[in-house]
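ok trying again, last paste got cut off:
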Amino acid sequence: MLLADEINRATPKTQSALLEAMEEWQVTVDGTSHQLPDPFMVLATQNPIELGGTFPLPEAQVDRFLLKLRLGYLPADEEVAMLDRFQSGSPLNALEPVTNAAEITAAQEVCRQIYCDAALKEYCVRVVRRTREHRDVSLGSSPRGTLGLLHAGQARAALAGRAFVLPDDIKDIAPNVLEHRVMLRPNAELRGLTAAAVLEEVLATESVPMTGRRLA
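nice, full thing came through this time. structure:
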């Protein structure tokens, strides 16, 4: 599990090394390639406000992140709870592993077996194609985004304790899967449009199949 904190502060050379790790599951040092363990995951953070000394991530690298989450600020009661937890020390120092590589691999296999109806797969494709055809979008989601939408929907269903994907699984997770894969035209950005708004429009106007559960 690799955490790249404020990844946009990494130089292009470092980002290129991360791209090799995420795409080819290997790293190259002095001309020698080394395979990465399985499973291998990359998590990254970005500061959306301070841009000084940062380097934009290439589209090819951004596309390899399955999800993008916006953390924002804590609610007031949770911020108070944070003060209580950190008042006399850092609970981070007492963290212990909660799983291992074998369990993560097994969980991934379980998610891949979650049933997804053919109509929902077609819905995933239609939503992604709409991002490519939208008048305000210069670069829509790649097929990797379509696959990510399916896999994220399966994982969401598994977390809910279901063996099948519902339309809401796909629709609710779509903004997190697709927003970072959508690039707007310059004139759209000047009008204040955002990728999130484009996806909101797409999801609101694309018909959702009334299916999802496999009948015996």
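cool. The first strand starts at residue 2 and ends at 4. The chain has two domains: 2-65, 102-205.
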